[in-house]
Hints:
Largest sheet: none
Distance between the termini: 21 Å
Strand content: under 5%
Number of domains: 1
Number of strands: 0
Number of helices: 17
Shape: globular
Radius of gyration: 21 Å
Amino acid sequence: MVAAGGRAICTEPSLADGPADDLTMALFPQESLNPGVRKREVFGWAMYDFANSGYTTVVLTAVFAAYFVGGIAQKADWATFAWTAALSTSYAIVMLTMPSLGAYADLHGAKKRLLVLSTIGCVLTTAAMALTGPGTVTLAVVLIILSNTFYSYGESLIASFLPELAKPQALGKVSGWGWSFGYFGGMLALGLSLAYVLWAQAQGIPAQSFVPVTLLITASIFALSALLTFWLLKERAVPNPAALRGGGFSASWRQLRQTFREARHYRDFMWLLACAVFYQGGVAVAITLAAIYAEQVIGFQPQETMVLIFVLNIAAAVGAFGFGYGQDRIGHKLALGLTLVGWVATCVIAAVTTTKGGFWYAAAIAGLCMGSSQSAGRAMAGLFAPARQVAEFYGLWAFATRLASILGPLSYGAITWFTGGDQRTAILSTALLFIIGLLLLLPVNVERGRAAAQRLG
Length: 457
């Protein structure tokens, strides 16, 4: 992925010739990449964002979330809470296991191997969701817990490759490439699903018959697209024989405990983690509950919701790509702060609007902020990670973001339940998460955090 300071000369055959190769060179300029990294490798890395985005778009946001509440749980009073509780359970599993799994990946040089295993797990459990239907609440809950756990493992592991590929001054840009490219994968999965749903509805086919097909479409795109990642992405981490004495996960736990003991040296990373717990909680609400809110509160029909999410993905791709470049220019902290202000505006507009048109404004702002805020956080985490502990630090990042994904949606579901279904109050309360995240971002000193990573890595 990266070349030294200029354009690297490669003697190996390229991934593509002619216009396709020119496109790769334009999208992934060599000067943004570390020495020894080829452009085809960063393309393979970005393809994983392309591959897994269909899962969040179709399963967590546009189709299965609303189907779980309205179809599987039959619009029971506890349905939204059950959905958020299932997701929260998966995030709790990730919180408890991902930091040590990341340390294991670093010590054993096994990031790519674990990425393959987590991908297979997510693809199979997503496909198995096609077996769910009205009344199969237990099966649906088990499968969403498993699939989202595997998805979260993969998301953290693929992020840990970022500092190996991009130069420090280009982390935001390269992270933005992946996030923006990922939304096109989400749009592909959603677009094919939407086309099938519209055809099925025209044929009089009920949701319990056409929703399973959308899950099979999503799983297939994930599997096929990820193959390019596994082919092109290199494993650069090497096993650490000295640290591995004692074997297996016990060595990983020792390394993780050592990192926590040295946490005072990484105070800016810790402030960033605290910030992420709150702002990512708000993002998780948007991802997991947008379709439910649009249909239950604003009155969108399922096909309208899918169009809404499709357009939201376009805005998110633009936001991630544009902010990726802007982040490297204006600074990581300011870029992230601006997106959090946009999220506050989104929540307020969504809470007060009573029309579909008004909700479209909120969705447009959310789209621009969604990709950029997540990409910005991922890049900052990479900036603060010591070179020998990248997967471990991204494991800690996963801990924070999954804690956020418990607090955000679960608090939303609880407020909705306790207020007798008042989702407007719940979405307005979500603005507080972004405000707190903004306040916790203030103490972060990017230069100091980067210097600590270089000194201790």
